[in-house]
Design brief:
By secondary structure, the protein is of the alpha+beta class. The protein has 10 helices and 6 strands. It has one domain.
């Protein structure tokens, strides 16, 4: 498979698409990624606890069938799934190699998705995928600071890797490994149905983000910047991450996520 997220996503990585989701989430300050055996996280809040401000569907759309040749596949135990997962993924551009050397890949994808669901920054789960260098800004004569177009270049390799994804193959890989994702999600204290709903909702959230084309004014100093527009700054970390990548990159990722969605669901 030619590789992904966030993504990933991740994804979501997303989620599945790794991230779709995630994959590309970052903050101006680079965070180190611990390589301990387990990833301590807070228990995932229930749908009832998080649902007051969002329209949560009662059930996720059904996944499309797995390809017949992989239906009887025996999956590895979650605890030793990293090596098996690396064998399923071939990254032509080499961008994902460092992330795939991380431990507990599926657990980190699930944790990143859960953090995104809680409107928290999932980037700390994938610091190895964060773009190099600090946020590039442009200081104007009037003293105002804007996000520089040069900043978008920091994401070129990540977006290229995501564009090279075979979304049909990736979707089938997720459907094959879904039991491992459910197991990892269960470790957070949540049930199977909640995972499927989180996946579907976050995938749609990523697809529907409207990225502004105009110059974006910032405020802050020395690498720590926030959006001057309070409406942008009040967005969820996942949405702000998309905006920081620039409209061209965001649209390319959204196009691949739409493809991924068509292969995931019936």
């Amino acid at each position: 498979m030619k590789n992904v997220m966030i993504a990933v996503a991740l994804a979501l990585v997303l989620a599945c698409g790794f991230a779709a989701y995630r994959y590309w989430i970052t903050r101006p300050v680079t965070l180190s990624e611990p390589e301990n055996e387990k990833i301590p996280v807070e228990p995932s809040p229930s749908m009832a606890e998080t649902g007051s401000e969002r329209d949560i569907p009662k059930e996720a759309p059904p996944l499309s069938p797995i390809k017949p040749e992989t239906q009887e596949e025996v999956l590895p135990d979650l605890e030793i799934s990293d090596t098996w997962l690396r064998e399923q993924i071939s990254d032509k551009e080499g961008f994902l190699d460092q992330a795939l050397q991380s431990k507990h890949i599926i657990r980190k994808l699930v944790t990143a998705t859960d953090l995104a669901w809680r409107d928290e920054n999932p980037g700390r789960q994938w610091s190895a995928l964060q773009p190099k260098g600090e946020t590039q800004v442009e200081k104007r004569d009037d003293g105002k600071i804007y996000l520089s177009a040069k900043n978008y270049e920091r994401y070129n390799l990540a977006v290229l890797a995501f564009e090279l994804l075979n979304t049909e193959t990736l979707a089938n890989l997720y459907k094959r490994t879904r039991p491992l994702f459910l197991e990892a999600h269960g470790e957070l204290g949540a049930n199977d149905n909640e995972w499927d709903i989180k996946m579907a909702v976050i995938l749609d959230q990523l697809i529907q983000i409207e990225v502004p084309f105009e110059n974006l004014e910032l405020k802050g100093r020395e690498g720590i910047y926030i959006f001057a527009d309070e409406k942008l700054e009040d967005l969820a970390p996942l949405q702000k991450a998309f905006i920081r990548m620039g409209p061209d990159h965001a649209m390319k990722i959204q196009r691949k996520l739409r493809e991924l969605k068509t292969h995931l669901y019936q």
